[in-house]
């Protein structure tokens, strides 16, 4: 295997804010610097690309020191938060814009699909638009002609092929547009977030087509998406972009894992630092989440992962009515459920003795849907008094559930709803 | 960027290298040729899209110049009493209007080509030169149709004659395709120079439409060159469109003037402007997506 794309030290400098005011003076400054053989006076002050930080410089490096290789026939997924530089990278690879520094070496023809239906003209018929769009994407008329029937077949709009596309529903429009791109003849295909449109059936068709393209024709595919499931089902390798740099370049599973662990802008670990909750029975000390392997986790849980809720503390006075547990809320304070260690048959309860205690309550896999939740420590002496009361004074940690959707081809994008249980069906 | 021998060695086997800068003379002409089908499809798109949902359809191609000619006849011929060199008004005005329209359409459309197509250019790569070229070819189709109209009217007067004279076509007619190429080149060249400037400074677009209108009055469209006297004549002669329209009238109608020097001047002017336009366009095209 040899590299078909070699990205070397790519950087892209953008000017922020209003373009158009002061550009003349900047241009003159630049020109004067160049005349004297100096560096671009504005490039130096560029800052790294973190969209949450208000920078001091007008210039920002949307990409900086980006290096990676793509092997022939590889399907590479690029993930990262909004503004991490994914689209800029694709634009440079697609030759839509130039890098500010570095170089990219390419072997083979690149076709890019940064948008479906680029250049579609509403007045033209579906037929005319297939030709026009195909040509814009780099096909010759003869190539399009030879694939025309397949394209129409794939799009499923046979009936309206001679109707102006302005009369199409948006779904039909997208189908036709993707169909053209699906039959592109190229060695390297770049696809950006185009699956976010169209209905589920068609999305599945597109994913299938992309898999097919990469596996059966040996084409190299670069795929950007926020749909982690789609990415992980198509790609074998991944790149994680963060603030304009490559944060990880590994197998897709590892990269997705690292991406999920980036989402740490919530507190997942509570510690009783200022000795609150003074009472004679129980003093909570720690409250946090663990993964299946009991490693402390500050990251997202997949839907298909068990979530361990750990409560630690010291029992100072044993009381048979002491109940330890937690409550789960949505972020908008809707209670989902309570859970106590005293649930179930009494003989199965864990015996609470004086001194240190550490319990894990497991939230089963395939219960909570993707989303953010709050977990609150719930401890009380039953029927007597609250120690930590959910919704009132209890310690709160955040729980994030993302990814790990079902293996079903029909369940590849998140579903609505708070719960996402995996039920079984039987013939009856 | 310096290209050392080591890097050149490294480039072997790679079909393409994307780098921040490249030679200003690397015009991707092979690429343009590879995308020639796109050029023709864009022309087809322009043609269909322009006259979709109009009742008269391509008839508008005929009506535009005729209505303009009638307006000029009333204002410049009747009211201002400008000379038409003793020719029927329609016959005198039509060539000027048709050729000038071709020039001004090529110029105006090309001047805003980067701005108009920013959405497409921002999403997909193809040789950017294809777009301005498609404008010139689209307008060539339109010009062809309007020329046909002129030829019909011209043939009518040629055979039926008219009061007070006759028209004398001559062999200079063979120069017509050449004249049209020069006009296209001028429009394209000027347009590309301006389009490259308007991506950053949009003010130019406003100036342009005014400037083109003004320039028409310094072209023998509404009056023959022979009617222009004094210091203004110099201005007319400096205008590269002047000799082309004069030559055209001379070829078909036998009036006006034919000057090899004037034609040579226009041709050289066209080559310089076109070359400059392509160079500037080629340079700006690479980074304009960041400024448009």
Helices and strands in order:
The complex is a heterodimer of chains A (428) and B (292).
Chain A: E1 3-15, H1 23-35, E2 47-48, E3 59-71, E4 75-80, H2 86-93, E5 101-106, E6 110-113, H3 126-136, H4 141-155, H5 170-182, E7 188-192, H6 200-216, E8 220-224, H7 228-234, E9 237-242, E10 245-251, H8 252-262, E11 269-271, E12 282-290, E13 307-315, E14 322-330, E15 335-340, E16 355-363, E17 371-381, E18 385-388, E19 396-401
Parallel strand pairs in A: 2-3, 4-8, 4-9, 6-7, 7-8
Antiparallel strand pairs in A: 1-3, 1-5, 9-10, 11-12, 12-13, 13-16, 14-15, 14-17, 17-18, 17-19
Helix pairs in contact in A: 3-4, 3-5, 4-5
Chain B: H1 5-10, E1 16-18, H2 29-34, H3 36-51, H4 59-79, H5 89-111, H6 113-116, H7 118-121, H8 130-160, H9 176-198, H10 203-216, H11 231-238, H12 240-253, H13 260-285
Global Rg of chain A: 28 Å
Mean pLDDT of chain A: 83
| Rg of chain B (C-alpha, Å) | 22 Å
Summarize the helix and strand pattern of chain A as letters: EHEEEHEEHHHEHEHEEHEEEEEEEEE
Largest interface: A-B, 47 and 40 residues
Strand content of chain A: 25-35%
Low-pLDDT segments of chain A? none
Oligomer: heterodimer
**Largest sheet data of chain A:** 6 strands, mixed
State mean pLDDT of chain B (0 to 100 scale).
85
How much helix is in the residues of chain A? 10-25%
What is the total number of structural domains of chain B?
1
Task: Please write the string of helix (H) and strand (E) elements of chain B.
Answer: HEHHHHHHHHHHHH
Distance between the termini of chain A: 53 Å
> Per CATH, what is the topology of the largest domain in chain A?
Rossmann fold
Q: Structural class, from helix and strand content of chain A?
A: alpha/beta
Q: What's the total count of β strands of chain A? A: 19
- What about the largest sheet of chain B? none
Specify the CATH homologous superfamily of the largest domain in chain A.
P-loop containing nucleotide triphosphate hydrolases
Spans of chain B with pLDDT under 50 lasting ≥5 residues? 1-9
- Give the strand line-up of the largest sheet of chain A: 6-7-8-4-9-10
């Amino acid at each position: 295997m040899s590299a078909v794309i070699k990205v070397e030290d790519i950087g892209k400098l953008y000017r922020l804010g209003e373009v158009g005011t002061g550009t003349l003076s900047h241009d003159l400054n630049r020109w004067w610097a160049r005349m004297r053989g100096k560096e671009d006076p504005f490039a130096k002050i560029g800052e790294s690309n973190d969209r949450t930080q208000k920078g001091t410089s007008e210039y920002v490096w949307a990409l900086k020191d980006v290096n990676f290789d793509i092997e022939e026939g590889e399907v590479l997924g690029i993930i990262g938060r909004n503004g991490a530089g994914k689209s800029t990278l694709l634009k440079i690879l697609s030759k839509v814009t130039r890098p500010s520094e570095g170089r990219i070496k390419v072997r083979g023809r690149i076709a890019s699909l940064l948008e479906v239906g680029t250049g579609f003209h509403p007045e033209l018929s579906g037929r005319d638009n297939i030709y026009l769009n195909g040509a814009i994407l780099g096909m010759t008329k003869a190539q399009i002609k030879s694939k025309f029937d397949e394209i129409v077949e794939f799009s499923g709009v046979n009936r309206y092929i001679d109707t102006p596309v302005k009369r199409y529903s948006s779904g039909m429009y997208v189908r036709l547009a993707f169909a053209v791109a699906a039959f592109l003849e190229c060695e390297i295909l770049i696809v950006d977030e185009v699956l976010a449109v169209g209905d589920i059936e068609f999305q599945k068709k597109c994913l299938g087509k992309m898999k097919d393209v990469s596996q059966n024709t040996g084409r190299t595919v670069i795929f950007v998406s926020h749909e982690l499931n789609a990415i992980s089902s198509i790609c074998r390798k991944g790149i994680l972009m963060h603030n304009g740099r490559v944060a990880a370049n590994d197998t897709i599973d590892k990269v997705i894992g690292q991406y999920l662990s980036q989402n740490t802008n919530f507190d997942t670990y509570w510690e009783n630092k200022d000795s609150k909750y003074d009472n004679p029975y129980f003093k909570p000390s720690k409250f946090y989440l663990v993964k299946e392997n009991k490693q402390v986790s500050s990251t997202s849980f997949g839907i298909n992962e068990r979530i361990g809720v750990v409560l630690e503390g010291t029992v100072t006075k044993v009381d048979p009515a002491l109940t330890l547990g937690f409550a789960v809320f949505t972020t908008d304070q809707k209670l989902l459920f309570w859970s106590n260690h005293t649930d179930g048959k009494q003989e199965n309860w864990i015996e609470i003795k004086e001194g240190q205690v550490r319990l894990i309550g497991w939230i089963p896999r395939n219960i909570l849907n993707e989303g953010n939740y709050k977990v609150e420590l719930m401890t009380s002496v039953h029927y007597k008094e609250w120690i930590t009361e959910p919704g009132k004074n209890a310690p709160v940690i955040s729980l994030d559930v993302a990814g790990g959707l079902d293996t079903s081809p029909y369940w590849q994008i998140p579903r609505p709803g708070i719960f996402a249980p995996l039920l079984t069906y039987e013939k009856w | 960027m310096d290209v050392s021998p080591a890097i050149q060695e490294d480039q072997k086997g790679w079909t393409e290298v994307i780098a921040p800068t490249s030679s200003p003379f690397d015009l991707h002409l092979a690429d343009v040729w590879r995308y020639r089908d796109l050029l023709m499809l864009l022309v087809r798109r322009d043609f269909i899209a322009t006259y979709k949902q109009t009742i008269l359809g391509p008839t508008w191609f005929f009506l535009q110049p005729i209505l303009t000619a009638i307006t000029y006849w009333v204002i410049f011929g009747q009211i201002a009493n400008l000379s038409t060199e003793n020719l029927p008004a329609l016959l005198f005005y039509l060539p000027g209007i048709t050729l000038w329209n071709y020039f001004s359409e090529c110029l105006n459309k090309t001047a805003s080509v980067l701005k108009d197509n920013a959405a497409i250019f921002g999403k997909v790569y193809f040789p950017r030169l294809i777009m301005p070229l498609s404008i010139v070819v689209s307008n060539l189709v339109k010009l062809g149709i309007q020329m046909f109209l002129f030829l019909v009217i011209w043939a009518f007067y040629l055979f039926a004659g008219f009061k007070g004279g006759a028209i004398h076509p001559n062999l200079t007619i063979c120069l017509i395709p050449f004249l049209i190429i020069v006009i296209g080149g001028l429009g394209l060249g000027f347009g590309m120079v301006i389009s490259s400037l308007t991506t950053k400074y949009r003010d130019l677009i406003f100036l342009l439409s005014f400037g083109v209108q003004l320039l028409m009055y310094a072209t023998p469209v509404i009056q023959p060159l022979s009617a222009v006297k004094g210091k203004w004549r110099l201005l007319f002669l400096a205008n590269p469109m002047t000799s082309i329209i004069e030559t055209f009238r001379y070829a078909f109608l036998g009036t006006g003037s034919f000057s090899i020097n004037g034609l040579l001047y226009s041709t050289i002017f066209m080559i310089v402007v076109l070359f400059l336009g392509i160079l500037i366009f080629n340079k700006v095209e690479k980074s304009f997506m960041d400024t448009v």
